[in-house]
Each structure stands twice: as structure tokens, then as C-alpha cells.
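Record 1 of the preview.
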Amino acid sequence: MRHQPNTEGAPYEHHPNDILGRLMALPTQAEDFPAWYQEVVRGADLAENSLARGTMVIKPYGYAIWEAIRDALDWRFKHTDPPHENVYFPLFIPQRLLEREKEHVEGFAPELAVVTHAGGEELGEPLVVRPTSETIIWDTYSRWVQSYRDLPLLYNQWANVVRWELRTRLFLRTTEFLWQEGHTAHETREEAWDETLRMLDVYRQVAEDVMAVPVHMGRKTASERFPGADETFAIEALMRDRKALQSGTSHYLGQNFAHAYEVQFLGRDGEQHYAYATSWGVSTRLVGGLIMAHGDDTGLRLPPAVAPVQVMIVPIPGKTDEEVGSVQGAVGKLRDAIAARSWRGVPIRVKVDDRDDLRPGYKFADSELRGIPLRLDLGFRDFQANKITVTRRDTGQKQELGLDAASDAIEGLLDDVQRGLFDDAVAFREANSHRASTFDELRQLIADAGGFVTGSWCGDATCEAQVKSETKATIRFVPLEAQDPGAPCVVCGRPGVDEATWAIAY
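->
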């Protein structure tokens, strides 16, 4: 069965904007989640595939969502104590730089795009198109760092990245994507360690407080670590298909890159020391996570904090010019009253859907598909009764408000939608989080229930690999601090040394 949108009697004829057609093409999540995802991305005008394999065009509505996430992160980077600053490093990296950190280059080798010809000639030295920037940044830091007084370096870069992915999906995994990558250098291990965890918590704040997506913070196992890192930490979220999405990573790099690129400084003791490093990053994959964490069978459900349009006013056409004029005048006043208010310190983003070639039913369906948090409907009879109907996208709940007082209620309603989406996502995650005490139980839970499955783990990579081989699930995280689980390993039965949480992941 295809989803039947709310059209309020609108006919199924073809329309140039084809909003109804987009809704009719939307499968249910239970029916075909990957197809649902693709149709939401397409139908809500978020992005489309471009000509080169694995690349995408991010359309204005999708880019506005990314901008909201980006701005929330950027503000937090610049308001840490001490603050971080933005920089920019080149897209092209001499291949020889990668070869100086063996583990790093081996980890990225299958994904590298290499330029060997330019200007009609073969290059004397191949150039790698940036897969990440540790190499060129740490080569540069070797010239910037001479003394402990030069530290710390707290820099972030907003950039694009190219990784030659075999299987791509818009936003989630593309050959080229947008991201930020922080790269910091420190005098001591303790400073670098604190930085790694501080930035992990910044990611948690944006995921939960801005995107309304609850996340787990934890350590990655050695097999899941960033190439060249001593430790990798991540935030992990659960999507509506009960798969996990790694939504951000923060890496403690120790002195590995400092040794590889000779980043030494004169210490307070008069001796030469190698700097300690971190790197951390999130990408446009967060837009995909937002879609899959909140979306329903009608389309997007956007938290107000990232919604390009927070309030959509839909005028219901009148039968006479007098009725039309009355409604238009009331809508204009309401729009201006709402726009004059702020939510979370910025003006409320309100828009009037005044497209006169579309019926109200189409507009309702389009607003739902695009996930607009609040929709306000006003017709002539409503105008006469001095009232307006408000519909919340997160719950579908409708309520009537006095037209004169409607603008006063918007801030509170936006709070309710933001909190409601987070609470709903938490409840979904909790309902799909399980514990296993045996391997048979672990296998069955992963196969039948999905979601997060937690159990005792002996710490052996062989057991980790066995679970992956037999279930396709991987360890998504272990606790930030190692814990004695007090139970035998769910895989081999030997004494457990930590708790692990498994899931099938994107």
C-alpha cells in the first residue's frame, strides 16, 4: 500500500509541481525504508544525484538544514574556553605527505582519489584529493610550533572531502561531502585528552539540543579506530529502521602525527618535546541522520532549531474578492507579528504559502513532506470567527487559537515540538535497546529486534570479528571509561573486561 496523503478532496490530476505525485511515490518505512529515504530526499527537495558517480547537488532546502547544523557547531567551537578559530588548508595534498604516517595512509588507501595529470602534462609528483587533512596540517604545524608558548593550536576547518566510496547514498555516504575537521596541538597529554572529550560533548550538545537526536557517547574498538589514532570516541544514534549511525567522531592522536611530521617544541624544562594531537569531525551525513531519526510515513519531521521554515501559514481561498482580501490582510498581519518574535534568540522563520496555482490540500501535503514544525491554516470563516487552526508536524495534533493571540503562542509551541521530537526519539531508542547474556541471544536479538544490543565482552578482536561475520553487527561503542561487566563474554564465555554495544550500522 502506498501512503495516502492528506489532500482534503484534491483530485489526482497531474500538476506541474507534482506535489501529490511525490507523496504518492512515498513508500512506508516498514515497506521499504531505503526507498522511503530516497523518496523523502527527492520529494522534499533536499538533494539529487549529480553527473560524477557518487556526487550530489545539495538543493536550497537541504543546504539550509546543513547551515543550521553548521552554525550551531561553529558557534560552540568559537565559544569554548579557550576558543577555537577557523582556518583553511588546500584541497590537494602531495602524496609523499601521506606516506610519512604508515597506519594513516593504509587506512585511507582504498578511498584515495589521486591526480596524476594536469595542464596537459603528467605531474612530477601525484597529488591526493583531500580525504582528511591531518597530513598537510601537521606538516604545516611543524613550521608553526617552536616553543610551548606557541601551544595550544585550536583550529577548525570547514571544507569538502573526497573519498572514493563503492556504495553511495545521498547525504549518508557520497564520494564528495561537506564537513568540518578540527585539528589541535597541545603541550601535554592531559590537555589533548581533555580536548578530545570536550569536542565529543560539543557534538552531543548539537545532536541532542539542536537536532533533537539522542546519542550515546563511547569509545571505539581498535578495529573501528581512526587510522593513526590512539583512541577514537564517537556519538552513536539510532535510526527508525533500527540501524545505528555514527554521527560524529573525536580522536586522541597522541604523538603519532607529531613524530611523523617532526612537530617538536622547546618545553618549559628547556628540553625538546613532541606535541600531542587531536582531530574531530562531523559531516553532511548529519542531514541524513536527521531524516532517518525523525521522519515518518508522511515525510520529514524537522526540529524547529534546524527547520528552514518553522511556521508555514496557509491561506484558504475565499469565494469573493472581499473574502480573499480579508484573508490576505489577516495573514499578512499574522506573518509580520510572528516574524517580529524570536525563538532561541533569533527571529522566527515564518512563511506564507501563497502559491495561487495549488489547492490547500496540496499545500498541506507539501508542508508535511518538508517537515515544517507548525502549520497555520486561515480561511474566511476562520477570519470571521477570529480564530486560526494550528497543526503540529511532530504529532499531527490540531488546536484552535484566537487570531489576535496566535503569535503569542508560537514560541511555546516551537518549544513543545523541539522537546516532543527529542522525547519521541528517546522513547524509540529505549524501546529498541536490549541486553544479551549469550551468543544465541545476541544473534537472535540482532536478527529479529534490531537496535542496540549490549552485553559483556572479553576485549578479544576475534570475538568482535565473529559477531560481525555471523550477524553483520559491529561494536558501535564501549563505555567512555572501561567497566567490569561482572559477567562472561556473550561470545566466548571467558571473563568479560568491558561492556560492548552492538548494532547493524550505516
